[in-house]
UniProtKB/TrEMBL annotation, chain A:
Transmembrane portions of the chain: none
Alphabetized InterPro entries for the sequence: AAA+_ATPase, ABC_carbohydrate_import_ATPase, ABC_transporter-like_ATP-bd, P-loop_NTPase
Cross-referenced SMART domains: AAA
Protein name, as recorded: ATP-binding cassette domain-containing protein
Automatic annotation (TrEMBL), chain B:
Entry-linked CDD domains: TM_PBP1_transp_AraH_like
Spans traversing the lipid bilayer: 26-49, 69-96, 108-131, 137-157, 178-200, 231-250, 285-304, 310-328
Sample GO molecular function, one term: transmembrane transporter activity
Presence of keyword Magnesium: no
Keyword field: Cell membrane, Membrane, Transmembrane, Transmembrane helix
Organism: Lichenifustis flavocetrariae
Localization: Cell membrane
Membrane topology: Multi-pass membrane protein
GO cellular component: plasma membrane
Name of the protein in its database record: ABC transporter permease
């Protein structure tokens, strides 16, 4: 029992939307500094599972522990307080708010005057410029509304927002979908750097080659269940593809307890 | 806050960027730009067409008459910017003006009555806001029901009669008084508009109001209590409608359950004319002030021009359509439609 305390330990997570059992008794573990690749078919439940961890979705069932302590995320504010940050698949930006405003959404620098809190816009802009510079994100003008930015720039801003506020757990739901080659490389590099600092990362992507560049471990989801888990060294792209589409069922995955009872023809 | 890795090593595309000039700023605030032009246009038109329009007494008169509209439009700007609407403000105004007169007749000190009325408006707003924010019922439905029910309550309490307020009470000064040569209601309205402007543009609350209209889920995910913010904008519009009711009762020296018929439409017209988007996410307090003054000037100017007052709704409606159409046509480059 000398196993180190996991950064994240999720057990028995279940969530139903109408008639769809989106998540069915899902478990997930994440060690400090570990990079976990979460893969699965469209609609497998990857986004929903990560939203449970970021507090955006409240599951019907299941427990979450962060650093060995059980937490209950009733809202995203709770998860943020526990230093869980997420880059959402839909980016979650406010189109008619400027770049700085989006970066600081929900934690704006404030000045108190006569007991009323006002936005400290000057500090917000200065900090936002510094933040983006540190990440090497180039945005023409920090005061433009994000609706005027390109898809890739918007994505960079969503990533910058999640990465900049000292996360313990950083969830990235398809962060590279709209990015050009150099930018994808930079995101992978960002993942390596933050995980080297001890940040745990969950990376959701359909670009399987990326997983093999940065992940320590891969977890496969299939129709709302976590069906398999592999150390990156023990697997290859072909096997991951098989697991995702759920056709071949190798002997190895049968050994995995989480795969029990999932008989797919 | 420390993350060294680079997301891109591409140099800043400063070469593609022109500095923002005056023209860009004008077009970026397309709504405000066009209503400013429109406002100047109607002012010049009536100045030329009528003798008395540009006289000081008439301008002060316009300010006095438009103050209820300004107060409520300021709050309505916040409501509409969240993507909501409040159709009940005219009915709240009527109910409050009637209750106000009844309570003052009953001998309750008028200062207390004013506070009670503001609380009453806020409470009605909170109730409607609860159904909108926490129960997820569309604001249009909730406040349409409110419009009907609240007007009904007002009619029921007064039996349809107008209730006089003794002109000897200093209460009526709230509507008729002067302070340093300016009508008291105009001073109240200016104060409200200034507060609303600061609230909207300088506080986190105002930021969340805009954010909710743009992408409520994004604001929620950022850890903001979006339901409370949404509820509160209805509290504000209810309170402002009540204040408008108090000022109106004071000016007219009576409370009537028939006051403020169609008032909600004037308010919404003022806000939308000002350039606030009915779809939410885009609002401007400066535009709203110009919009409200434009609506007021049109009403006043048509009367001075000895035209039938029945023309007012026709002209106002036409101008709203033309102004919004201009916004879509001329200023399209600024506000990209998705
Ligand atoms: N808010 C919601 N309301 C109703 N159904 C939902 C909702 N969110 C997710 N679902 C359903 O849950 C299932 C899993 O969705 P989820 O977004 O988690 O999939 P995913 O694995 O992220 O897929 P993708 O690779 O396409 O992003 C889908 O069938 C989806 O229809
Ligand atoms: Mg997804």
């Amino acid at each position: 029992m000398a196993a180190p305390i996991p950064r994240v330990r999720m057990r028995g997570i279940s969530k139903r939307y109408g008639t769809i059992q989106t998540l069915n008794d899902v478990a997930l573990d994440l060690a400090p500094g570990e990079v976990l690749g979460l893969v699965g078919d469209n609609g497998a439940g990857k986004s929903t599972l990560s939203k449970v961890l970021s507090g955006a979705v409240v599951p019907e069932d299941g427990t979450i522990e962060i650093d060995g302590r059980e937490v209950r995320f009733a809202s995203p504010a709770d998860a943020r307080a526990a230093h869980v940050e997420m880059v959402y698949q839909d980016l979650s930006l406010c189109d008619t708010v400027d770049v700085a405003g989006n970066l600081f959404l929900g934690r704006e620098p404030r000045r108190r005057i006569l007991g009323v809190s006002f936005l400290d816009k000057r500090r917000m802009r200065a900090d936002a410029v510094a933040m983006l510079q540190r990440l090497g994100i180039s945005v023409p003008d920090i005061t433009v509304h994000v609706e005027n930015l390109s898809g890739g720039q918007r994505q960079s801003i969503a990533i910058g927002r999640a990465a900049s506020f000292d996360p313990k757990v950083l969830i990235m739901d398809e962060p590279t979908a709209a990015l050009a080659v150099a930018e994808v490389e930079a995101v992978l590099e960002l993942i390596r750097t933050v995980s080297a600092r001890g940040v745990s990362v969950i990376l959701i992507t359909h670009r399987l080659q990326d997983l093999f560049l940065v992940c320590d471990r891969i977890q496969v989801m299939y129709e709302g269940r976590a069906i398999a888990e592999r150390q990156i060294a023990d697997t290859n792209v072909e096997e991951v593809v098989d697991l995702i589409v759920g056709r071949k069922f190798s002997a190895r995955s049968a050994r995995n307890t989480q795969a029990e009872g999932v008989a797919i023809s | 806050m420390s993350t060294p890795a680079q997301i891109s090593s591409v140099p800043t595309p400063a070469t593609r960027l022109r500095p923002r000039g005056l023209k860009d700023r004008f077009f970026a605030n397309g709504g405000v730009g066009s209503i400013a032009v429109f406002f100047v246009f109607v002012v010049v038109l009536f100045s030329v067409a009528t003798e008395d329009f540009l006289s000081v007494p008439n301008i002060l008169n316009i300010l006095r008459q438009s103050s209820p509209l300004l107060m409520v439009a300021a709050a309505m700007t916040l409501v509409i910017t969240t993507g909501g609407i409040d159709l009940s403000v005219g009915s709240i105004l009527a109910l409050v003006s009637a209750l106000c007169a009844i309570l003052i007749q009953a001998g309750i000190p008028w200062a207390l009555v004013v506070l009670l009325m503001l609380a009453c408006g806020g409470l009605i707003g909170a109730l409607q806001g609860f159904f909108v924010a926490y129960e997820g019922i569309p604001a249009f439905i909730v406040t349409l029901a409110g419009l009907s029910v609240i007007r009904g309550v007002a009619l029921l309490t007064t039996g349809g009669y107008s209730i006089p307020i003794p002109a000897t009470l200093s209460f009526v000064e709230l509507g008729r008084g002067w302070f340093l040569g300016v009508p008291v209601p105009a001073i109240i309205a200016t104060g409200i508009v200034a507060l609303a402007f600061v609230l909207f543009t300088q506080t986190p609350f105002g930021r969340y109001v805009t954010g909710i209209g743009a992408n409520a889920e994004a604001v929620r995910r950022a850890g903001v209590n979006t339901k409370a913010v949404t509820l509160f904008v209805y509290v504000l519009s209810g309170t402002m409608a009540a204040l408008a009711g108090v000022v109106l009762a004071a000016r007219l020296g009576s409370g009537s359950s028939n006051a403020g018929q169609g008032f909600e439409l004037d308010v919404i017209a003022a806000v939308v004319l000002g350039g606030t988007s009915l779809f939410g996410g885009r609002g401007t307090m400066v535009g709203t002030v110009l919009g409200a003054l434009t609506v007021a000037v049109i009403g006043n100017g048509l009367i001075l021009a000895h035209l039938s007052p029945f023309l007012t709704p026709i002209v106002t409606g036409t101008i709203i359509l033309v102004a919004i159409w201009m916004n879509f046509r001329i200023f399209r480059g600024a506000a990209r439609k998705r």
